[in-house]
Each structure stands twice: as C-alpha cells, then as structure tokens.
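User: Could you write out the 3D structure of this protein bound to NAP? I've included everything you need below.
Assistant: Certainly. Input first, then the structure.
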Amino acid sequence: MRGKIAVLGCGTMAGALIGGLIDAGTITADDVVATARSQSHRDEVATTLGVKTTPDNAEAARDADLVILGVKPYATVEVLQEVSEVLKKDATVVSIAAGVTTATLLGAWQGKVVRVMPNTPVRVGEGAFIVSPAPGAQKAGEKVVEMLETVGTVVEVPEKLHDAATAVSGSGPAYIFLVAEAMIDAAVAMGLSRDDASQLTVATLAGSAELLATGEHPAVLRSQVTSPGGTTAAALAELEAGGVRSAFADAMTACRDRAAGLS
Ligand SMILES: NC(=O)c1ccc[n+]([C@@H]2O[C@H](COP(=O)([O-])OP(=O)(O)OC[C@H]3O[C@@H](n4cnc5c(N)ncnc54)[C@H](OP(=O)(O)O)[C@@H]3O)[C@@H](O)[C@H]2O)c1
C-alpha cells in the first residue's frame, strides 16, 4: 500500500502493526506520522519505530492516504470526528478498535472504512488479522488485505462475525501466554530452573504451532502424543477434569460479548 500513513494513537497494538510492516519492508518509517497525547509515549514511538510524531491528530491525518485509528475503543469515534474535516476524500480509514462497528464509524465520517482486528504477534511478522470492510469499501479492503498479508495471515469475515473472530485471534495471544505461564510455573514447582522451563515451554508451543499449520486435525496430533495409559493420558485427564474445554468456550464467549458491548 503506497502513500502516507497516519497512526492516530500509536500504542501497543498500532505500534506493533507499524513496526511489523516496517520490518517487512512493506512501508518505510518515512511514510508514517504517529500521534499520542503524552510526550513520553511519542518519544518512545519515535525511538522504537523511527517515525515522525505529533500530538496533533488533524495535522497527522491531513495528507494521509491511510489513517489507522489505534486509540482505545471508547475514544475511536471521537478521534475520527476530530479529523473528519481534514481527511482526504479518498483516504482509507482502518479501525483496529474492538467492538466498534463500521456503521458507527460511518456515522462520524462517510468515506472508505475498513475494520481490522490485528494481534500483537504482527510485531514479529506472524500476525493474524480479521478484516471486514464497510459497505462500499470492498476495493479499499482488498488493498488493506494485500498490505497485511506481508505480515501474517488474513481472514475476511462478514462483520456480524467480527467480534466472534476477535475472541479467537485478537485476544488469543493472551490465552496462549497464560498457558505458557502456567506450564513454566508448574515446571518450576517440580524443580526445573525458570530458564530451562521457559526454553522448553516456548519450543514446545512453537513446534506444536508448526505441526498444527500442516493442517492435521488437532485431535490427531494429540493422539500421536497420547499412549494408552501413559504419561500424556494422565496429564490430559487432569486437564479435562479441570474443565479446560468449557473454560475456553466460556472465555471466548465472554470476549465476544464484551467486544459487542464496546461499540
Ligand atoms: N493490545 C492488543 O493486543 C490489541 C489487539 C487487537 C486490537 N486492539 C485494539 O487496539 C486499540 C488500542 O489498544 P492498545 O492495547 O494498543 O492500547 P494503548 O497501548 O493504550 O494505545 C493507545 C494509544 O493511543 C494514545 N491516545 C489515547 N488517546 C489519544 C488521542 N485522543 N489522540 C491521540 N492518541 C491518543 C495513547 O497515548 P497517550 O495516552 O499518550 O495519548 C496510546 O499510545 C484498541 O482499540 C484495542 O481494541 C488491541
């Protein structure tokens, strides 16, 4: 995607996205102007990403071809309203805010709006993105998809499923980090050093993800590790008794419902 990019609210998620795109060579730091209200946040962004910064959203958005709304969901419409007067007519606005619908965004600015749910692994070029263009923004959506495919996997979904998909990949990294933490802590409790426990856990998660990426069904992969009456079977029985499946179902339903309540 060529042209100037404004990132309004360059925090954790938008910063990870821009950093990933710069590292992939999809965009250059010179293309980007990022905003944050506090000087300390702007300094951090300038240092880590090498992009220009300003506290003034309108100044950043004025010449931009692509505007990324990176503020928290409650501030997203307010920021779009703030810049709506100065936006180029043919600019594309990408909102990464959980739960904020394209209908709500179009209420603030009647242009090309694309709703995107990224996740933080984009920082290392391994993002997962959910894309739902607003009605009439299909072409803009295609360009956004093209850009995001350079830093991860993109799935386009009808907007009514955007919140459900958010519960998978938007929040998903946090579930995996929690699992990693739990495994490391359990290993330490059994006497392993934290360093050994971390190395083994991370390698296990990464290797398992690669096996899953072959397309083999998770249940088949799991059964390959599970001998009858063996060690893994004993461990899995405890996880099932602990209600791991229903805990995930409840967690993801809660995530989807919370997203739907943010708009
Ligand atoms: N974190 C994730 O894993 C994740 C995943 C997917 C989607 N998202 C979405 O990404 C968005 C941001 O989340 P986050 O976790 O990245 O939050 P965050 O780290 O707090 O980032 C928000 C940034 O916006 C700046 N900001 C706040 N109000 C502003 C304003 N009026 N004008 C300009 N900048 C402003 C903040 O800096 P100042 O306070 O200095 O202004 C901060 O740098 C949310 O809508 C969330 O739903 C997050």
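The pocket of NAP is lined by residues 8-14, 35-38, 41, 57, 70-73, 75, 79, 96-98, 117-120, 170 (CB under 6 Å).
User: Perfect, thank you.
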